Amino acid sequence: MKKRMNLKNMVIIILIAILVISYVRQELTMNKIHKDIEAKQTQLNELQDKNKKLQDEVNQSSTDEYIERMARERLGMIKDGEKVITNSDSPQDKQNNSEAKNNQNK
After folding, report:
1. Where are the transmembrane segments (predicted)?
2. CA 21, CA 34: separation in Å to the nearest integer?
3. 14 is a domain residue
């Protein structure tokens, strides 16, 4: 009778141990999944912010003011009647001036 109780107790203890191990493994898996979700949520938020900034740039780039500013800054365009003032101290201007003087002397 004692042997049966010991065997019964042993089976119960083994079952409880299996359940505890299973529970702990599930908790570890759930914690990992929650961390992954948080990381993905952070990444999603960053991408949404970047997307919003890019969308704002796209919206801004279609305005006349933006197009005019880019034409002036990048292409050096001017409006009719505007006077262009250049800095004669720039290396490019110095090179152009020296080339012009050399051409005049020939």
Report:
1. none
2. 20
3. no
